[in-house]
Amino acid sequence: MTTLIVGLLSFTAAGVGALGGLGGAVLLVPALVVAGMEPSAAAPLGLLTVAAGSLSASSTQLDEDTVNHRLGVTLEVSASAAAAVGALASSVVSATALQWLLALAAIGAGIALGARRGSRYAASPESSAKPGERRGRIAGAYQEDGGVIEYEAHNVPAGVAVMGVAGLVAGMTGTSGGFIKTPVMNQLMRVPVKVAASTTVFMVGVTAASALIVYAAQGRIDPHAAGAVVVGGLAGGRAGALLQSHVPPAIVRRILAAVLIVVGIVLVVRT
Question: What is the largest CA-CA distance in the chain?
C-alpha cells in the first residue's frame, strides 16, 4: 500500500473522527486491515492518526468552549493506564480476536448512539450563563444557535470505570477508544454530544500517546507510513473540527452511529 493512499485514508479518518468525536483510528485501522495490513501493524498507525488529529482539532474546539477539561482529565486517568496495558497485551492476542473485538465494540457503540432521539439540553435565548467550564463542578455551557446550552455530567464513577475498558480496547486495537468514549459521555453521563465529541478529541490524544510509547519501545512503528499518517491526521483533524461547528448535534450523532455500524459490519465480514 503506497504512502499516498495511507495519507489520504488518514486525512479522511481524522476528519470524520474530529467531527463525531470517535477518533479517526476507528476508521483508519479497519480500512488498513481490509486492505490487507495485519492488525498489529495497523494499530500504531491508527494511534498516530489519533494523536495528530487531536492536536490539530483541539485549538478550534477550545475556542468554541465545547471541551470540558475537568471531565476529560477525570476520565482519562483510567483510560491512559488501561491503554498501556492493552498495548502490551496486543502483542500476544491473535489478529482474529482483535478484529472481533474491534467489530463488536464499533457496532455496539453505533447502536447505542443511534438509538438516542432528540436532545436533553435545549438552547435558552434568555440564559445569562457565560460559555465555559464551571469551577468545582464537572459542568459548563456553550454557545449554540438560539442561545446558550448549560449541562452537567452525571454518573461520573461509572464513566471512569467504562473509560478503563475503552482504554484497554484502544491499546489492543489501536483505535483510541473514541468510539466508546463519546457515546459513554453522551448516553451514560448525559453530556451534550458536541461537548462529548470535543472532549473525546482532547482525550484521545493522551490515550494514543500512552499506547504509542509501548509500540515505539517494541519497534512496531513503520517510519515511512508514519509520516504520511501524521500529515493526513493533522490536515483531517483541522478540517473536521471546522466542520463540526456548522453541523447540528443530531446530525453529528446520526453520522457517527452510521459510520460505526458500517465499520463493524465490514470487520465482521472480513473476519
Answer: 57
